[in-house]
C-alpha cells in the first residue's frame, strides 16, 4: 500500500464518484478504479457499496476514511515539523550563561530576540559558571553558552567575542566608605574579603590575586563561596568586601555598594561559545541572531 492509495480513496469517498475523484487527483477513471480495487483486495474488505446511484461507504469504509484522514494529517504535520526543525524554528536549544551577564545589556536582548524569531523552539537557559558550561558542552548536554575566557579556547570550540566587562569593588554599606572616591588597593589592606574557591575557576582566581598583589594588596580571605550572588549576599551581611564582575552593577544589593578601584583593572572578555561540530539547526539560528546583533 502506498500513500497515493489513501489519497485516491479519500477523494472517491468525499465525492462518492470515481469520475469526480479522478478530476480532483488528475488520473483517469479506470486507473483510480483499479487503485481502489487494489486497496480493497489488500485490506480484504469492501470499502464501498456500488449501486446505480454511485458509491457509498460501507461501515468499514467509513471507519477507514476517518483513519486515513488522521494518518495523512499526521504525515502532513510531520512534514511541516521537519521543515521547521531544519530551519531552526522548532526543536530544542539549551544555552548556558554566567548569571550576572544576563541581567542587562546584550545577553538578555539576544535571548529576547531569539524567542521572538523562533517561538517554536523549546529554549532552555542554564545559569552556570564558565568551567561548568565548557564541561557540559563537551558532554553534549549544553548546546552553547556565554562564557568568560581567560585562556585560549579548546581547538574544538567555536567562539564569538561579544564585549568586555571589568571588575568593581563591592563593600558593605555599613562600612560607610565614600561612594564617589575610587579606592586604592593598598587602602584595603587588612580588610576582610569574600571570594570564590580557586577550584571553581583557577584561571580567573590566579588573575585576580595577581592583579591585587601588583597593586600592593594581599587579599585577607575570610570566606569562600561558589557564586557571585552568594559573594554579594555575604558582602551585604557585612562579612567582608569582594572584587566582582562589573556587570553586577546592573543589580546592586540594597545593603552593599559598588566602588571603583583606582589601580586594579581586569579585563573580563565575554564570548559566545559552542562546539564546532554541533549541527543543531536551532543553535545555528541562534548564532545568526548573535551575528545580526553585533
Write a structural description.
InterPro entries: LysR_HTH_N, LysR_subst-bd, WH-like_DNA-bd_sf, WH_DNA-bd_sf. The chain is α/β, with parallel strands linked by helices. It has three domains: 3-86, Arc Repressor Mutant, subunit A (Orthogonal Bundle); 91-150 and 279-293, D-Maltodextrin-Binding Protein, domain 2, CATH 3.40.190; 167-266, Periplasmic binding protein-like II (D-Maltodextrin-Binding Protein, domain 2). The protein has helices at residues 3-15, 18-25, 29-43, 59-86, 106-117, 130-139, 202-214, 228-236, 281-293; strands spanning 48-51, 54-57, 91-97, 121-127, 144-148, 157-165, 167-172, 192-195, 220-224, 242-245, 256-259, 268-275. Strands 4-3-5-12-6 form a five-stranded mixed beta sheet, sandwiched between helices. A hairpin with a 2-residue loop joins strand 1 and strand 2. Helix 1 packs across helix 3, helix 1 packs across helix 4 (59-86) and helix 5 (106-117) crosses helix 9. The longest helix is centred in the N-terminal third of the chain and has 28 residues, at 59-86. The protein is rod-shaped, with a radius of gyration of 32 Å.
